[in-house]
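Justification of computing resources. Each target in the renewal requires a structure prediction run like the one illustrated here; the chain below, 378 residues long, is used simply to show the kind of job we budget for.
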Amino acid sequence: MRILKKSICIVFITSIPWACGNSGSEPSPADNNKDRQIILAHWADNIVIPSYADFSSAFDVMAARGKEFTETPGPATLVAFRQAWADAYLKWQTVEVFEFGPADKYTLRNFFNIYPSDISGIIANMNDPGSNLDVPAAYASQGFPALDYLINGVAADDQGIINAYTTGADAPKRIAYISRVIHRMSTLLRTVITEWTGPYKEIFVNNTGLDIGSSMGAVINAYVLYYERYIRSGKIGIPSGATFGSTGVPYPEKVEGYYKRDISRHLALAAHQAAHHFFNGVNVNTGSEGPSFKSYLDALGAKDPSTNTLLSKIINDQFEAISTELGQLSQDFYQQIQSDNQKMASTYAAMQKLVRILKVDMTSAMSVTITYTDNDGD
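Resulting structure tokens:
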């Protein structure tokens, strides 16, 4: 989606009575649920690094199928490439939430998943192999959305797509651009993974404060921003016209996976589940919960003062409510918007409720400052 660079400023968070413990003091070494270093180490070792490894494996399969297609365009290689692209795109949803540290440094999301695709930009880049793909104007002409257009949208049917890569006047340029896009994505991904598995991991784990510039502060900001801007607004709000401040006019052509169509709900569910699992510290390899936002909030005694319900339970219940809403949508969000857009609006409303809890209640309980701005009414 076309939501690009972050606008950075410090926003004052109004204090509300969620945190019953003293979140400002350093924890006792024995109080592991408040030990931020343990949480950071769990995130790095058991969630972030193995998630990138899983995504890298799926990406490598896509790259291999892409190479086979560009070398021998045909029905079998197109189908195989398309399936590998869909599998890797789904895996991407599990790591896009980690736009902190190296991913933030290299703005990985901007080069992997800005949609809708800029078709004119793709064509211009095809015609100019030396064009600069680093500039913001080029974000929507690369990554998974560009590949979506190139293997699903250049013609009305598979034979037409194959013709575009065999007998079409621009066939060599199209083939070259697929290779260029995949190579660029691979280079950026390797760079991010190399930094995570190198010295950066220790820097991340040992930066245990809550101030601006701390690991915890960076993770919380990236996490809330991702859910607010890239899941709630990008996947649901903008295409459906439900985004705060909009005229209510839907833009179904702005759905994620527009040219594949039947993948949009899968992508949204995968992203939502990744955010849910990260909140609970779910270990990628074992599936068990570990140190997390949830355990930290519970250690702080963060509760709803009117019901005495743990804030973590309220958040998890809202995640579940959204999963139910998403499950009632069509696999094809474009079709869903056209036939019954109210269901998209209902899903957006449920997500908006979660955003308010995460962005205000959770951050207030944890004494973390939100450092990005978003014109969403929160």
